[in-house]
Amino acid sequence: MASSYPKMAVLGALPNAGGRRGGDGKLPAAEWYDTGMPTPLTDSERVAALEWPTQRVDVVLDTDTYNEIDDQFALAYAARAPERIGLEAVYAAPFHNERSTGPADGMEKSFAEIARLLNILGRSDVPAFRGATAWMPESETPVSSPAADDLVARAHQDRIGKLHVVAIGAPTNVASALLLAPDIASRITVTWLGGHARGHWDTREFNLFQDAHASRILLDSGVPLVRVPCLGVAEHLRTTEAELARYLKGRGPLADYLYQTYADVYPDHFAKSRVLWDVVAIAWLIDPGLTTTALLPSPRFSEFFTWSEDPRRHLIREVLALDRDAILADLFTRLR
Ligand SMILES: [Ca+2]
């Protein structure tokens, strides 16, 4: 039969192709998770953890701060929302694009950028930790780092409510912490900006594809997860140099730093805009009216970086839409 259908060999490599076989050739269990990690929560506990938190939340921010210009806005936004966000620590995430020579260099540059921003923000009370210097080598091998160790230790501390982990880069540090101490999945909630919207033709997105093993951990482990898709959702949070010049420039050291970071991206901003992607992950925690969300089965992604949906999977919360004007009004007000 296979010889009659030569394409079956390719289809057979897709997760759950034919309903039975996983992408790694293993037969998946009937359960939704296939990472070998224990089920951390019941379905009802997970759904409860995914409600919008009405109380101020304890937050750690995992950020590839230097890879672009949006993480800086997100970090500043979190630090300037103290009535909603108790910022406990910031973790430097690895990245590799034209602004770094590899994941280790990207992490180190992010660590330096975090220090610059915390200094401008006057937040010497917030510790910063170096993260992973390499991607996860395979699906169940964590990458140790000061950031992953701090996350494990911090998640084990007694506190009222969950520790909220906001990840706005490749999730190597967070996934590694979950592998090092799987029990923390019942003590944290993760908000992750990664992948594209369901229905988009692929999900080959920077945060997701850089460390696909780590991204799969977030989607498969059952940790309470709020996912902010990039194309199709976060991409609507666009601004321009002209807008920032009018509403941020000259409004204090922080506003000036962020304006200049943005302005330096292009020699000429004529008819150009950019997306403040990562800001959406913070906006979700600040005010439930800034985004529209829904509970949906956690998706899988194939080796070709396409979404695959299975209604039997555990639920995650996903951002479906955002109020661009309301988010930028709140952001600009807090940054100046
Ligand atoms: Ca980022």
CATH homologous group name? Ribonucleoside hydrolase-like
Percentage of helical residues? 25-40%
What's the overall geometry? globular
Rg (CA only):
20 Å
Report strand %: 15-25%
Bound ions, cofactors and other small molecules, one mention each? calcium ion
Q: What is the end-to-end distance?
A: 67 Å
Structural class of the secondary structure composition?
A: alpha/beta
Could you tell me the mean pLDDT?
Answer: 90
Residue stretches low in confidence (pLDDT < 50, at least 5 long) are 1-23, 25-33
Count of runs of 4 or more consecutive helical residues: 12
Strand order of the largest sheet: 3-2-1-4-5-6-12-9
CATH level-two architecture = Alpha-Beta Complex
CATH class: Alpha Beta
Q: State the order of secondary-structure elements, H for helix, E for strand.
A: HHEHEHEHEHEHHEEHHEHEEEEH
What CATH calls the topology is: Inosine-uridine Nucleoside N-ribohydrolase, Chain A
Q: How many domain units?
A: 1
Describe the protein.
This protein is 33% helix and 16% strand. The chain is an alpha/beta fold. The longest helix has 19 residues, at 103-121. It has an eight-stranded mixed beta sheet with strand order 3-2-1-4-5-6-12-9. It has a two-stranded antiparallel sheet with strand order 7-8. The protein has twelve helices and twelve strands. It has a single domain (55-264, 272-335), classed as Inosine-uridine Nucleoside N-ribohydrolase, Chain A. It starts with 7 loop residues before the first helix and ends with a helix. It has helices at residues 8-11, 43-49, 70-79, 103-121, 146-155, 172-180, 206-210, 212-220, 241-247, 253-263, 279-286, 324-335; strands at residues 57-63, 85-92, 128-129, 163-167, 188-193, 225-228, 238-239, 274-275, 291-297, 300-301, 307-308, 315-322. Calcium ion binds at residues 63-64, 67, 71, 168-169, 278.
